[in-house]
Design goal:
The complex is a heterodimer of chains A (633) and B (558).
Chain A (H helix, E strand, L loop, with lengths): L1 H14 L6 H14 L5 H23 L10 E2 L2 E2 L12 H20 L5 H14 L16 H18 L20 E2 L17 E2 L1 E4 L5 E4 L22 E6 L2 E6 L17 H14 L9 E3 L17 H4 L29 E3 H11 L8 H15 L6 E2 L3 E2 L2 H30 L4 H11 L22 E3 L17 E6 L15 E5 L22 H17 L9 E5 L15 E5 L2 H14 L5 H23 L3
Parallel strand pairs in A: 3-4
Antiparallel strand pairs in A: 1-2, 5-6, 7-8, 9-10, 11-12, 13-14, 14-15, 16-17
Chain B lengths: L1 H16 L5 E3 L1 H4 L17 E4 L8 E4 L7 E5 L5 E3 L1 H4 L6 E9 L8 E10 L5 E3 L1 E2 L1 E5 L5 E3 L9 E2 L1 E7 L8 E6 L26 E6 L3 E4 L11 E8 L8 E7 L8 E5 L6 E3 L15 E4 L8 E4 L7 E4 L6 E3 L10 E2 L7 E2 L2 E7 L8 E6 L9 E2 L1 E5 L4 E3 L6 E2 L2 E8 L8 E7 L15 E5 L6 E8 L11 E6 L2 E6 L14 E6 L6 E5 L5 E4 L6 E6 L8 H12 L1
Parallel strand pairs in B: 36-42
Antiparallel strand pairs in B: 1-35, 2-3, 3-4, 4-5, 6-7, 7-8, 7-10, 9-12, 10-11, 13-14, 14-15, 15-16, 17-18, 18-19, 19-20, 21-22, 22-23, 23-24, 25-26, 27-28, 28-30, 29-32, 30-31, 33-34, 34-35, 36-39, 37-38, 37-40, 40-41
The chains are: A alpha+beta (633), B mainly beta (558).
């Protein structure tokens, strides 16, 4: 209980800071509500968007200049009536009241079915009551000019809109058609186990039970989150970019179809080298997670950033020009000088294993986080709070705190919502396998490098000295009675079996059997419960980066530098670390987005071919959402 | 300002600590002394049926007995029960009874009893698997007469759950019997795992048409597309709101053999169409029992199926769009019970029962929990409170004991307007040295303390079956739509009360009440008083059309 109170106190200090707008207050509340919910980025993107658009619409009622998004027009066949009422232009008290009542009702509705709703409820109630409002005032009759009733009314309309918007909120967003084709991978067992179709997603089973007859039963298998999310009504996505793509008698709505990812087999019924190249990337980069391997990187914007990937194709030849397979990272040039200060960026030399682990966790956005769409709202808030940023829309017109927040949330919310719809439409249709399944499956098959060596299979993984090798008789991994001789081993992050206390132990990097390979993620999470292709992180992040670039009128963070500090031995939660204080730094929003994308490879959940299409599509989404959103102003 | 708020939060917290148990174990005071005696160390059996056999206004209990005789407990009306098995002529010593259900089979106004069986005595101490089920006709004078053969129910089978429903709306209750094994050689105690050997062949279920209260005609061929499964019975219910009774039948080891099956009644044709897949009702689980209830008050019946681990809660999307299993989303997907002492346990649930225990307008959900046998553990059965959009375990149910729970029924034994529960327990394989009392079957009295209103409805069929089995009652009040169906047999091999119960919260007026009798005939009532038990007599309005006559004629002729 004490924790809750301490938390509320800390929270309220930041929530009621003098400089913050009422929109910001409620944005912080929804972000915390998201942290108390399941890690379901599609649902939260929609929640962020509907809430931002709702606040925007209320603001337009008082601003009397900008066009509303929902009100008095046909949105996908839903008409939300608002009768012009005598709300005084820029009556701040009334506006705050309307926004607060609307947010309160809306958050109650959208997060009522949250696993930690008790915590969320305490927060929502305490913020609302501390602002001096009465939760028992439930009238929606705003026509006599009651702004609290206006808030209640608009919230009710937006909630009702949500029942119809294709997200299937009525049935808790569950899947109406989708069924996985592969049996779950029981995480307590080695290998990829039963994979019927190596091109398709495999669910993960987090527990297993053994009955009195010794039979194993998989327990707790999270279903695919959002394969039908393409059905949800978007913000700015265009029907011209939409294809209905049929699989298993279901038409998946796919925006910006990137084409299929590499299949497991090539035309000769051997392992497709594009498939192998991509998925084995992830185990190789897993070997970079050792802070003691002596590799130091300059992680300042002078060393990393400024990547150009225009005209990229998604085949290996093209991808090779972006990613550095063995050393890690991309082939970006960095910045010679900070264009804002006209001085070079100060070098920051840190162990690669610290940098990679820190960004893998910084961008993990899994359990207890605000998820990727929420993460970019926190980055937007960071920019808005920055001393060197003066709230100029497109770098031109200076706005008040409230107007800036209202407009920025509206557009960023729309972009995040569209990114979710596009990325998950593609995820649902292609239903592509994740690295944990692919790496284990290729290795279970054997090695395809040399028919004269042991354990050859044309469907096996390829051997790469120092990263992917065979276990020989003298090997420490050979095991009792040499049972493991001939199996594939990988040099990689060794996994949670090597960590008994996450505050004192780190697993380190070394040779492990490929059948036991784990991504650098929480043991309770392992890999997100949806298909990999295309990366949601890449799509969201690039879209957000484009929005921030256009909103602020500059591709650079204020002062030419965005920064986040990760404390020595404090920041990491999957294991002990980092070994020293580290500053995550970015010159531009796109640099932050690119770093987020790469962090998913080190985090073990996306190969390059998941990542780049996400970035390319995200860029289109961000620009389109900005232009569309701006057209309302 | 926020300091003030923290203070008020503290007060709220304080209030939530205050609580008391909802149900009270009054088994001992009630005079009920029962445990289901398992046969051959197997986990089978333990059904219970609720019916007012002596028509005195207090519902009585029939309890299957397993190796010992089944028992008829007369409800004395003063919260005590008397064992009247002997005088009723219901001693079943030489046969292993499993489950039970009731109906007025011959429509003489007295409710008859049907008991499923799994084995019979062939010599002094030897039993043989497969036995004839038992039909006991109620003579109306406190005695029963065995009428199994007379009613042509003489197939020997390994029967578990049976359910009555009037599939052709002729007023005579028809019968579905779930059968588990085709035959079984060896000791049933070998079945203690989550999987089953192919050596044990599953049984074929039986469907019977009641021919004018004279005999049952075997029409099992109408079980469209139902391959033999490890049957635990099923339920007659109107799945698609077309006014007739469909059949949802459930199977154990569905992952391995045959899943649950949904058969849609094509009334007025005597025909069922298997729509299990199409309507996404083919849950392949270890189905133990099923409950019927419109938990979200949307006018479409939903179904929960119990299982090893949490079972599906099939939410009816309506308009034949089929079902979605929302057990996890709705908060009833609990697979594991953490234990403070010792390892956590997999949930094995048997009897699901929808009931509005706190009379607050929405259906809550009860699941009895019991090991496969052994072990005995101090386990809480699950009482899920309907919170509006989701369910939440009510920690103060008061239903916690060492017994191995099986069949469970709801009924208002003390006629005080709230629903009580009876939970059958099996004899544990491991002797419980501490007490034999603590593992026995239990009567739980509902001691919910609130001022919520309620309504109880008994249907008196005329053209329909005597208690209107499968008939549906909807009440409308201040925008609330509540719907119940009369149970002909459900839960785990058991039958609930046939008196419909509605919690009304603070509603003090019912705008209208609509009865839909099987076949689709509707009867509308207004001016209904509340906090009462009302009887509704069926009004004769149905006239057989020429088409009906032709259809019936040919159906009987076939």
């Amino acid at each position: 209980m004490h924790l809750v109170f301490l938390f509320l106190i800390a929270q309220q200090k930041s929530l009621f800071s003098q400089d913050h707008s009422i929109a910001r207050t409620w944005n912080e509340v929804i972000l915390e509500s998201i942290r108390n919910d399941f890690a379901r980025p599609t649902v939260h993107a929609r929640n962020l968007f509907h809430m931002s658009a709702m606040m925007y619409d209320i603001w337009t009622i008082f601003n009397k200049k900008s066009k509303p998004y929902f009100l008095n027009k046909n949105n996908n066949g839903v008409y939300i009536q608002y009768d012009e009422t005598s709300f005084d232009k820029e009556n701040e008290k009334a506006l705050h009241e309307a926004i607060s009542y609307a947010s309160y009702r809306y958050l109650y509705h959208r997060y009522e079915v949250s696993p930690k709703f008790k915590k969320t409820k305490d927060l929502i109630d305490s913020v609302f009551c501390s602002l001096g409002y009465d939760p028992n005032f439930k009238s929606t009759n705003y026509k006599d000019g009651n702004s609290a009733a206006l808030g209640n009314y608009i919230a009710k309309q937006v909630i009702d809109y949500g029942w119809k918007d294709g997200s299937n909120e009525k049935y808790f967003y569950t899947n109406l058609f989708y069924e996985p084709v592969n049996q779950p991978l029981i995480l307590k067992n080695p290998g990829s186990q039963e994979i019927n179709d190596p091109n398709r997603w495999q669910p993960l089973a987090f527990e297993k039970f053994i009955d009195q007859s010794g039979n194993e039963i998989p327990g707790s298998v999270p279903p695919f989150l959002g394969p039908e999310w393409g059905l949800t009504w978007p913000f700015s996505l265009d029907k011209n970019d939409l294809k209905l793509m049929n699989r298993d008698d279901f038409n998946f709505p796919v925006y910006y179809d990137p084409g299929p990812p590499p299949e497991f087999l090539d035309s000769d019924c051997k392992i497709n080298s594009e498939f192998w190249w991509n998925h084995s990337y992830v185990s190789i980069w897993s070997s970079h997670l050792d802070p003691n391997d002596g590799v130091l990187w300059d992680i300042s914007p002078g060393g990393i950033g400024n990547l150009d990937f225009s005209n990229i194709k998604y085949n290996v030849e093209s991808l090779k020009g972006i990613y550095n397979r063995y050393d890690g990272g991309d082939f970006s040039s960095g910045y010679k000088i900070n264009p804002i200060t006209n001085k070079p960026y100060e070098k920051q030399l840190v162990p690669r294993g610290d940098y990679t682990r820190v960004i893998a966790e910084f961008w993990a956005d899994g359990p207890d986080s605000e998820t990727p769409p929420g993460h970019w709202f926190t980055i937007l808030n960071y920019v808005s709070d920055h001393n060197e940023f003066d709230l100029k829309f497109e770098g031109k017109e200076k706005l008040t705190n409230l107007e800036w927040d209202i407009k920025a949330y509206f557009i960023l919310g729309g972009a995040m919502h569209d990114a979710a719809i596009a990325a998950w439409g593609i995820k649902g249709f292609y239903d592509y396998i994740r690295p944990i399944s692919a790496i284990r499956m290729m290795s279970d098959n054997g090695q395809s490098s040399d028919p004269n060596l042991i354990n050859y299979s044309p469907l096996g993984i390829k051997l790469e000295k120092g990263y992917v090798e065979l276990v020989d008789e003298k090997d420490r991994l050979a095991g009792k009675n040499k049972v493991n001789v001939g199996k594939i081993k990988v040099r990689a992050w060794k996994g949670h079996n090597y960590i008994s206390n996450t505050e004192t132990d780190n697993a380190g990097v070394g040779w492990i059997l490929a059948e036991n390979w784990w991504p650098y993620q929480r043991p309770t999470f392992v890999t997100p419960n949806f298909a990999g292709y295309i990366s949601g992180h890449s799509t969201y992040s690039r879209a957000a980066a484009e929005v921030l670039t256009l909103l602020t009128g500059s591709e650079y963070f204020p002062g030419g530098m965005g920064e986040y500090k990760a404390k020595k031995n404090k920041f990491l939660v999957f294991e002990e670390g980092p070994t020293r204080d580290i500053k995550i730094q970015w010159a531009t929003y796109r640099d932050a987005s690119n770093q987020c994308s790469l962090s998913r490879i080190w985090g073990g959940i996306h190969p390059p071919v998941d990542d780049l299409p996400g970035r390319v599509i995200g860029e289109k989404i961000g620009i389109k959402a900005f232009d569309y959103g701006k057209s309302f102003f | 300002m926020f300091r003030f708020y923290l203070f008020s939060l503290l007060i709220l917290k304080h209030f939530t600590f205050y609580s008391q148990n909802i149900f009270t174990d009054i088994t001992e005071e009630s005079g009920i002394d029962h445990i289901y005696n398992i046969f051959e160390s197997g986990g089978f059996g333990g059904g219970v049926a609720v019916f007012d056999f002596d028509d005195d206004g207090f519902e009585d209990l029939y309890l299957a007995g397993g190796k010992k005789s089944g028992v008829l407990y007369k409800n004395n009306g003063d919260s005590t029960f008397s064992d009247v098995t002997l005088s009723a002529g219901l001693i079943t010593n030489d046969i292993i009874t499993a489950g039970a259900t009731t109906a007025d089979v011959n429509k003489d106004g007295h409710i008859d009893l049907f008991v499923t069986t799994i084995a019979e005595k062939i010599s002094n101490s030897k039993f043989k698997k497969l036995a004839k089920n038992l039909l006991f006709l109620n003579n109306g004078d406190g005695t029963f007469s065995k009428a199994t053969e007379k009613f042509k129910l003489d197939i020997k089978n390994f029967s578990t759950g049976a359910t009555f429903g009037d599939i052709n709306s002729d007023g005579f209750p028809d019968l579905f019997i779930g059968n588990y094994f085709k035959d079984f050689v060896g000791n049933l105690g070998v079945l203690n795992g989550f999987t089953i050997s192919d050596d044990y062949k599953p049984g074929s279920d039986e469907l019977y048409l009641n021919v004018e209260g004279k005999y049952f005609k075997n029409i099992s061929y109408l079980l469209d597309g139902c391959e033999p499964g490890y049957g635990f019975g099923g339920v007659f219910s109107d799945v698609d709101n077309d006014g007739d009774l469909d059949l949802y039948l459930i199977n154990d080891f569905g992952e391995q053999k045959v899943s649950n099956q949904l058969l849609i009644n094509e009334y007025p044709r005597l025909k069922f169409t298997n729509k299990s897949k199409e309507m996404n009702a083919d849950s392949a689980v270890h189905a133990m029992g099923t409950a019927v209830g419109d938990y979200n008050n949307d006018g479409w019946m939903d179904y929960q199926v119990t299982n090893i681990f949490s079972g599906p809660l099939l939410v009816n999307r309506g308009n034949t769009e089929g079902f979605l299993d929302l057990s996890n989303e709705l908060g009833v997907g609990i697979d594991i019970i953490a234990s403070k002492a010792g390892p956590s346990t997999a949930v094995i649930s048997w009897s699901p029962v929808f009931l509005d225990y706190d009379n607050d307008l929405d259906l809550d959900l009860f699941n009895s929990i019991g090991g496969i046998n052994p072990p005995t553990m101090y386990l809480k059965d699950f009482l899920y409170e309907n919170m509006g959009r989701v369910f939440k375990v009510n920690e103060n149910s008061g239903i916690i004991d060492y017994g191995i729970s099986r069949g469970t029924v709801k009924f208002d034994f003390d006629n005080d307007g709230d629903l009580d529960l009876f939970v059958v327990k099996q004899t544990p394989l491991w002797k419980d040295y501490n007490s034999t009392e603590r593992v026995k079957s239990k009567l739980f009295r509902n001691d919910t303390k609130n001022d919520n209103n309620w309504l109880k409805v008994s249907l008196k069929g005329n053209e329909s079956t005597s208690r209107g089995l499968g008939a549906r009652v909807k009440i409308v009040s201040a925008g609330n739509n509540l719907m119940r169906e009369v149970d002909g047999g459900s839960s785990h091999i058991s039958q609930n009360t046939s008196i419909l119960h509605f919690g009304l919260g603070d509603l003090n007026k019912i705008d209208s009440l609509v009865v839909t009798w099987p076949g689709g005939k509707k009867q509308i009532l207004t001016e209904i008083s509340i906090n009462e038990h009302i009887n509704i007599d069926e009004i004769d309005t149905k006239e057989e059309s020429f088409i009906d006559w032709i259809v019936n004629f040919f159906n009987f002729a076939s």
